[in-house]
Design brief:
Chain lengths: ~240, ~240, ~240, ~240, ~240
């Protein structure tokens, strides 16, 4: 299937968030889409993956939705499709959108595992634009010196030639981590001058986390029911 | 293999039912095909799945049969082929039939898992036609606010541009759930003004359930025998 | 690989027997090939399956042999290749042979699982030629009212347009069932007027069963040896 | 990859030995290549299998080497690549070489499982040339009356139209069986009039067996180390 | 994806190091790239493998980097991508680079398992250039008489026609073995007259080992977190 792009704003900055450690990418972009009241300008379906639809407030949540915020000329790629096994393809999608929209920058959001359990989450950055480092360090983020990145972001890092900024939120488990996501939003707010009220962030992120957790639970239950059925019915 | 369509009535409403939670889709469409005395106008074989034939009253039950009821200009896609792993392909078949028959509406029937065990089954709806909501709520169904849909219906929801109405029957297990299916039939009767006598519904649905259960058991036994044989014979 | 057909008699009746429940199809067709002293007129190799050769009386038994009996103008497709996973392809082979030989009828032999343990085996039939029912019931077979058919026969049932008669022998386990096979032979004898002496049937079938059992055992031993070797040798 | 044939002697007899029960084929052909001081005239690489190189006396042992002995106009296909899963392809290679070299005969060497543990190994034969039976029985070998053959030889038996002679050494386990291989060499010596001194055979075969056993052990250790590494390193 | 080669120095010697036993190839080539202050002239991405990025000193470490040292006209292929399952493809890449750069020699570095635990590591060699043996033995390395080689080096050995020298470091486990790698570097230094100070080698190699170990640990943790997440989230 082709990427569907209904509208092609030019010279945008692209923020991409796929599920990963702590679901950082998905929680953060979901908050942004919701908060910045974006418009859906594109979508993609991974038809070689199991079909699942998430319904929220009576509407379909796009498995991979491409949203546009005109005020800041920002495009948000928000995905809730499991990234495992489709990293390279997903990266190609991000890069294809970047090309079609002549993107000035790609901003990738990802969790990074932390060996040492800490109570607060650090935000690290990576950039392929040397002169952007000073700017990024002014935001209170630190260069990721050593680490291993997996997921869609890793494939984007290896392939894109577009100016790229990655924000890595340190997470301590693979469970949805709304606190770490809130920190990413704070950083993004400063970086892109989005002027979002930082106060309700954590609370709202908590709500997202709860919603995602309950969806995850439902999905798991569904999976289990499905498997039982599979055992007992051969159509 | 291509879809075989022997007859192409135009402007129809399509009701599709594949196995899923509680086998809602299959039980419901089987009842309709039986009750409305439909005519077989098409079929499809999933040749990348194991071959299994269900014989009923000395006749082959089509794994995926396409039936036509002239009186109400309704086409019923009744499938007893396991939907696991073929959701996208099955959705493409539904959409292809819709296109060939210039369908005015697709009506999808699916079970949806319920976390809380209740004795009665609610019917929820989803529609991609905003103005149809009032009508649907008049039937006593409620908009599915939050949930996760899997199976063929989820793929249809993500892909079709035809007006779509989904009825989700709340089921509490993956076992065949004739009570929930009977509720779907009641709702469909009101929605499409089929004027079927609602009294024998539950009883009849119970019979379907028993038949399907015994078929499932036979199929499982067959599978087990087959596996034993597999171990002891290499031809 | 293509079907090899060295000779193309026309207007034949085709009897096909693949392994299945109780190995009914293979035992029966092996008996017929032996008893009617047929001539090999074709063969097929499933090259996507493991290669195994059965040697009998110093000669190779064709994994799938196509035999011709001129006296009754009958073609027998006798297969000892495991049918699991190749049902559709095998059905295509049967149908291709039927087409090349302008077959008047396909006769499929298959075992069908019986839930209730009984001492005797019933023979059931299915036919796609309505007017043939009376004739078939005159043979002492009963229409299969309800059941689930798997294996090559199920795929033939779903695909062929040639007049089709299926004989299902009720078997109680997946082990080779020579008694049930003997009943099938009796029925076939009456149906096709083969005039074979029914007396030595059971005895002979017992011998086939023993041979097949011992082959199965050898094959299993070979498999086990092979697996041990696999563990200890990487070439 | 194509078969590499550097030299194409015509009208040869081809002896093929792949690993199988007791590694009969590989041990025997290795002895012949060594004893008859053959010249490498071809090779083949199975690139869909794991890459492994066996070094012997500081030289690479070809995974599948094609050797020529001019004196007897014999070509030896010696393979140490595991035959499991590549039987059909390997048979095609043997047949392709036979075709290119206009081979007069293919001689296949294989182990055959023995249900009854005996101290001595019998050699059985199979041939597709009826009139060669007398000759073969004069060698002290017996026609294989009933049995199941697996491996590359089974696929050659089903496909080749070249005159084919198979020697099956009865083995009692899947472990390298140098005694059985020595018996095959004795038989081959008589059959092809190779005039090899039969005295050092068993001793030499024992050495081969030891070498192969130690290689197998090394390979297994390597595999195990590799697997441990796999667990702890993701590059 | 194609091999990217930004610069094509001619007549070079190529040193290739992929992960393998004791990570010998990767540790050694990483040291060389670092020590000889090479320039990146090419890269390759294995897009059919999981995407993972290793960040070191704030920079991306190429999964497979091709480096050039002008002073010695040496090209180093340094890979940290797991070699399991991609041996043939990786060998094709090495050979393709050799062809494009008209390489005079390929030098492969690999670990070889040792059955007997020893405290010191021997370096063995293999070469396809007979007359180079004397030279190689002057370095204190011994011809590998008997052994089994796996990994990328084995596939290069079977396929390349370029003059090839392999150095095998005896390792006693699959864990990163910096001592063995240091021995390889010493040997390479003598062989290629690199004039590197041998004193800090072991210390430095130890550091590499620690870094790789910690990366491995991180990667493993990441993998485990990912798997947990996988269980609990279906997007």
């Amino acid at each position: 299937m082709e990427i569907q792009l209904f509208k092609k704003p030019q010279g945008v900055k692209i923020i991409e968030g796929f599920p990963g450690f702590g679901l950082i990418g998905s929680i953060t972009t979901e908050f942004l889409v919701d908060h910045l009241k974006c418009e859906l300008i594109g979508r993609f379906l991974f038809e070689d993956q199991q079909s699942t639809v998430l319904i929220h407030k009576g509407k379909i949540t796009e498995p991979l939705g491409i949203f546009y915020n005109q005020k800041h000329n920002i495009v948000i790629i928000h995905s809730i499709s499991a990234a495992q096994g489709i990293e390279w393809k997903a990266a190609d999608i991000v890069m294809d959108v970047a090309k079609q929209l002549k993107a000035k920058e790609i901003i990738s959001l990802e969790g990074v595992g932390s060996a040492v359990p800490t109570t607060s989450s650090n935000i690290f950055y990576y950039t392929n634009v040397e002169k952007n480092r000073k700017n990024l360090e002014g935001l209170g983020t630190k260069l990721l010196q050593d680490g291993i990145i997996m997921g869609v972001t890793s494939a984007v890092m290896l392939k894109t030639k577009t100016p790229l900024t990655c924000f890595f939120a340190e997470t301590h488990s693979a469970l949805p981590d709304s606190k770490a996501a809130a920190k990413v939003i704070e950083t993004l707010d400063k970086y892109l001058n989005l002027k979002v009220d930082p106060n309700p962030l954590l609370k709202q992120a908590q709500k997202f986390e709860d919603k995602l957790k309950s969806m995850m639970q439902q999905s798991q239950d569904a999976q289990e029911m499905q498997e039982k059925k599979q055992l007992s019915y051969v159509g």
